[in-house]
Design goal:
The protein has 372 residues and is α/β, with parallel strands linked by helices. The protein has 2 domains: 242 residues, Aspartate Aminotransferase, domain 2, CATH 3.40.640.10; 123 residues, Aspartate Aminotransferase, domain 1, CATH 3.90.1150. It has 13 helices and 12 strands. The strands form 2 sheets. A 7-stranded mixed β-sheet has the order 1-7-6-5-4-2-3, with helices on both faces. The protein has a 5-stranded mixed β-sheet with strand order 8-9-12-11-10, covered by helices on one side. Helix 4 links the parallel strand 2 and strand 3. Helix 1 packs antiparallel against helix 2, helix 2 runs parallel beside helix 9 and helix 10 runs parallel beside helix 13. Bound molecules: pyridoxal-5'-phosphate. Pyridoxal-5'-phosphate (PLP) binds next to helix 3.
Amino acid sequence: MAHDRKHGESLIMALLHKRAASLEKGEPLTPPIVNAAKYALPGAPDHAFPYGRFDNPTWAAVEAAIGVLEDAETICFPSGMAAVTAALMATLGPKSKLLLPSDGYYTVRVLMDEFIKQHDIETTEIPTAEISAHPVEGYDLVWIETPSNPGLDVCDIAAITERAHAAGARVIVDNTTATPLLQRPLDLGADLTVSSDTKALAGHSDVLFGHVSGRDETLMARVRQWRKLSGSTPGPAEAYLAYRGLMTLELRLSRMCESAAELANLFYSHKAAASVRFPGLADDPSYKIATAQMSAPGFVIGVTFVDETTAEKFITDCAAIFAATSFGGIQTSAERRGRWGDAVPDGYVRLSVGCEPTAALVDAISNTLDTL
Ligand code: PLP
């Protein structure tokens, strides 16, 4: 996958075989879960593993693996929000000016309002679809989330980054909805990429996890320092689960993306759906940039039904849909985002397409649509 198919496949090959290539005879193929607060540390404290809050061999294994896909230094965190916070703390200073999407994951805005703004940080909130044209002069940081969650608008990472860098601003991309296999923000010039690996990257709905990746050593040293000083550290068992999920990311994404493309067409042509958002539909507002910037339009679909009741009925009546928040898991799941207060219509459902056999999933959803 990734934009150039050959490059994407070579990344997957490297991901799957990297650890094996470094093993001594008798060492396990899968990384051990190292439960350690203390390590042997006589004399000078000059080892890579001096204390459990500083580093851990299971974190190192998952970081090395994600780092292959990102082609960059990677630091893991106990959740996507922990990664978001680390990236913000590493890049913002007193009186920093920040451009933030008004329609991205809402918790980032709440974090800003309730904690980070108290350090005299000024934020301007702009819809994702307008960020490409918005002036970046005077800002220290431009935060991008593309495709945005939940609205699935897309913005041009390379163009924004070029303008931002010329104006002296850094760019951070939340790449959660795409993953580094479908979209490569660092290759497009972004300074850091952050991800909630709770979603597709770990992919089994059994772990909260996150990471920050970047190619600027100084910036990454600050991210690492934040983790060490704030104690925002993942558990080794969670790091192992993320590692194990990552090994099948490409396989899962292939099925999820294939099914999502079919389902988007189904919603598009079905009278029960008032409208549909999917960056892979030719007349979707995100289509042009998504096609240029992503190797596939993803596995999340936005479907608007006529009202809240119809939307809820769709979710609860379809046996192939698990009614839950979050996205990127094995099972297809959905929720009305309006229930969290997102600025979407009451009948807007965010559908996360899972790994079920495509024909069976499309049949189940089609049959439910016919009854609405
Ligand atoms: N970024 C995006 C785009 C998300 O959708 C989420 C969670 O839904 C997060 C960050 C936060 O991730 P986590 O729930 O793992 O803290």
